[in-house]
Amino acid sequence: MREYIEKNKERFFQELFSLLRIPSVSSMAEHRQDMVACADRLVELLLEAGADEASVYQTSGHPVVFGCRKVSDTAPTVLVYGHYDVQPADPVELWKSDPFEPEIRDGAIYARGANDDKGQLFMHLKAFEYLVREGLLRHNVKFIFEGEEEIGSPSLAAWASEHKDMLAADIILVSDTTMISESVPSINCGMRGLSYVEVKVTGPDKDLHSGHYGGAVANPINVLCDMIASLIDKDGHITVKGFYDDVVELSDEDRAQLARAPFDLQEYKDFLNIREVKGETGYSTLERTGIRPCLDVNGIWGGYTGEGAKTVIPSVAHAKISMRLVPNQDSETITRLFEQHFKSIAPDYVRVEVKPCHGGNGFLIPISSRAYKAASRAMTEVYGVEPVPSRGGGSIPILADLQRILGIDPLLMGFGLERDTIHSPNESYLLKQLFAGMESIALFYKYY
């Protein structure tokens, strides 16, 4: 595979760049045609790589791409999952280069989607291409690329249920996560779930003069801030009643296994330019982001925020709040508990609305599985170091749905790094990680 990469890498760049140039932002209606264009381009690349068939399928939202190549009725079947939609590029002014005109500098590709997830799904296309062209493919391979992961995959679960037989496989292979570092590879054994809500606090029926009414009428922004502050106590515990009922405490043995991952707290703080970390009492930083739930405000707004002064008490204040959940916590249950709690703590002088946005459950996979062992062996061969099992702090809610619908486990072989700043300006993907990922994926098929 290494020789194949060296021989074909300039072609690889051009093909990957053709995907990265398409602004497939799923959250913005103005990019609907770009979503279609990106799906069509993936079909072309699948067929060129050696798929027997590949097509675009319509859903209630953005299209799904499905492709496959069959070797035999008795061969194991791998279902490769990825997503071609990307986050908005805003704030564009903070990018050093055009987010949709990929550029290679300092040993990395810079573009929106370079890592998440176009760059990582592209690794699977090229590993597959290599195995087909070299006559080494011994597995049936299916591909499913969706266009809604960045908005919570609202259409894919229903589509997958309708096409359950077509998607039948033995394992779901995914590259949409990070590893610990370039020198310490890791394999995600689980990811957190998500409950995402928007809250609205309303006071007076109109904006009021802060001189005429200040001190006599409740300010919805002040009230909202007080309510949000009460959601987490001094020990970092979430105060929503029933929130922790289904959280499973890990054994000392399991915590020790996860602690194998090398972690330099000072390096972590330096990277983020912070003086100190903060989180739930009694847990390490890695545990806080892997095995414990959390609650965060993702955005808050209301009143006047334009240039100059406008002395008003706003009528309305809003906030977007996300809760990362651990396996066993049910997203719909947590959303309901949050809504009940948030309304219960609202004072009489405001009205509160809670709007569920999207969510999904977390999952765990055993490190004793055949697929995990094959991935571990492959990455050991490429990196010269046995990968560490880890848990992802982020969420890919659709994977729990696919696990339930298809009855098979996902395996997360991610090759991104924290330095790649996905979802932020100047997203990038190191070339050596791109190539190491291709090689590792090709070897996975050898050992699985």
TrEMBL record:
Residues 197-349 form the Peptidase M20 dimerisation domain. GO terms for molecular function: metal ion binding; peptidase activity. GO terms for biological process: proteolysis. This is Dipeptidase. It comes from the Bacteria. It comes from Candidatus Cryptobacteroides faecigallinarum. PANTHER family: BETA-ALA-HIS DIPEPTIDASE, SUCCINYL-DIAMINOPIMELATE DESUCCINYLASE. InterPro entries: Cyt/Met_Dipeptidase, Peptidase_M20, Peptidase_M20_dimer. The keyword Hydrolase applies. The keyword Thylakoid does not apply.
